[in-house]
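Please, does this match?
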Amino acid sequence: MGKMPSFAHEMLREIYEQPEALRRTMGLYLPPQASNGLKPDVADLLAGWSIPEGEILIAASGSSRHSGQFAEILLEDLCGLAVDVEYASEYSCRGGHQDKGARHPSVLVLSQSGETSDTLAALSEAHRRGEKTLAITNAVDSTMANEADVSMPLAAGVEKAIPATKSFTCQLAVLFLLGLYEARRLGRMKAPVLQANIEQLQALPGSIEGQLEGWRAQMSGLAAKYKTAATFLYLGRGIHYAIAREGALKLKEASYVHAEGYPTGELKHGPNALLSDRVPLVVLAAVDHELEASVVRYEKTLQLLRDMKEQGAKVIAIANAGDREVAELVTDCVEVRAETEYLLPIVEVVPLQLFAYFMALEHNVDVDRPRNLSKSVVEE
């Protein structure tokens, strides 16, 4: 890694720290030499978090819930599991849990701090019902990590800025490894495919490093160009919907500019009425050409972009490097290097983080300490 550039804010520093944070986090779970799976002690640990009926409940809040939405698609697609993602704040307050009989899904809780009050309440509810629990946090000694049956910590390092960046991408990486483990355990992934996925994950930090400076320059320019926008609509399909939600949240909390994340196909079911010169779209249009479902998603997104061009909408797209078809249909195109479908989210969220950061600067916001927010919501 070359010399780290200077940083005016912790949020920008932490965005740039993501490649190294990802390497450290992978190091907790992957052996140093080539292998076809997790470290043996990690695999033994996860064996204690059983999925007896092929069902998982994920409870989380904020950015961590977006990680959970990523995990929902990943675990369903790769492992054939049934996954439900709940807002932690809603889950522990709902009635009707008590009569589920013998149906006990495994429960996964996600929290950067491991002290989020809503998510701790969800963890307590799961324990009350006798369910196996797994916690993924950035604090190995947190309450959540200690109270869950199994803990998978991150190694993102201390995150000083309130908007989560490196903790979010490290969550995605650990969830990806969890998905690979479960797919292999359930006999849905052969050893060579598992190893190829691990190698692609390990190559990701270097790929992100090589793109950061280009994204930094481009997103700074786009923030200046779009600073007068009243709101943004972020669109993504499949696993990328989680990143659309996360990109919109980052913009809101960092810059105080309103944004909403939607599934791409839902745009014409109401939100399209909002589009104007002051309401642009941010569309996630990257694709894994080796995966048929990803290509189908991409083709549908292209058709939407054609319609939006005809409508005269302003569109920022995240697309594969060299994708001229997308570039010709949108106002501005941000390129990311090609990755597999389930690794693209880790890459495409980074330019969205940078866009939120530079939009905050355009609006004179103290980006590390946005108003009314705290790093960890420890009480409702």
Notes: The chain has 13 helices and ten strands.
